[in-house]
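ENTRY TYPE: protein
CONTENTS: sequence, structure tokens:
***
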Amino acid sequence: MSKFRAACVQLTAGRDDEITLITACDLIRQAHAGGANYVQTPECTTMMEPDKKLTLEKALPENDHPSIKAFSALAKELGIWLHIGSLIVGTEERRAANRAFLFNPQGEIKARYDKIHMFDVEIPDGQSYRESATFRPGEKAVVTDLPWATLGLAICYDVRFPYLFRAQAKRGAQILTAPAAFTKFTGEAHWHTLLKARAIENGCFVIAAGQCGVHAEGRETYGHSLIVAPWGEVLADGGSEPGVIFADIDLDRMKQARDMVPSIDHDREFSF
């Protein structure tokens, strides 16, 4: 079987993990009711805490994390593949992990991925971000299997590093992911272009759930969760408000795109 229905959950996370968790679970249920077999949520699904000290205090380890337990139970109850774009997870180090989880329909964690690239930037809207001060960067790329396709895991700022997605595609990924909390400023400039480029250059579907709206201390995220086909067509766009988007994924479209432009097979080694 090469067809399935994908959904992206779009929401506005607050500072309290347990409060946002309720909203996230309600939207995941809506996605399931709409026929989705695979549901993806944004980066930092249940909490966006701007204060570094508070973030680290709230970053619970996996075994004690209420959201991990809740999402595991929900995936099992609904019988879906549930991709939590990321949660803030405590580690034994002084920094937390920005970690994605893929739950199978039995509620088991099928895959984990820690965000590799840290968003350490100052942007012209006056906001400054230093993710590396709070989060420990990951070191391993992750590709895993769904029943219908092979999935590559990434998070937000990773999307600006095409070599990661190329490596995943070379490893067999047919669907690339980039759940995000993209800033409104950078999202308006680059979000659609980056995701369409990652789809086109690799001949893969791209699925990217996004945070939206205004968060604590005035941080604004762009929304516009996207599902993009391998030829670059946008199959679904979440706009700027919380909600759920759907797209029917047909893997034959990937073959068609790669048959027309098989650039995935044309990589060459070169030197300077």
